[in-house]
Amino acid sequence: MARKRYNIGQKLKMLDEFAKLRQQGYSLRKAAASLGVQPTQIRKWTHNRPVMQQCPRQKKSICKGRVSAIKHLEQPLIGWCLDQRAEGIPLTYALLQVKAGQLDEEFRQRQWKEHVKLHQPSYSAISCVSKRPEIKAHAYIQGQT
Prior knowledge:
Layout: H1 8-23, H2 28-35, H3 39-54, H4 71-86, H5 93-103, H6 105-118, H7 123-131, H8 137-141
Helix pairs in contact: 1-2, 1-3, 4-5, 5-6
């Protein structure tokens, strides 16, 4: 059976149909099969029903998503992007990061820390040296093999 994502309105409607089937004596498994979903989905939807009733019916998820860490930079960045496009300058992800760093010092420092973390020598390099004793560990890590 193909995977399908139901919106909250469809989930609530299926839960109502499920309740009717249960009153008619259907087991959870048979009722779920007649609705075309898995029993675990019915259990999760039943558990989340109070939350789903508070959400808009067209949404597919009750999650709000991750909160933007750069919400305060979004409007200035959008304005800058529109200006650059009006001048015919192509934009890249790297340019957006540089501009965000110019607008916010904290963002630039966070980006730099992530960059440094990516370029740290890994422990796998050290374990490789232990398997090849003729190579000095410090030379291997510095790329002098």
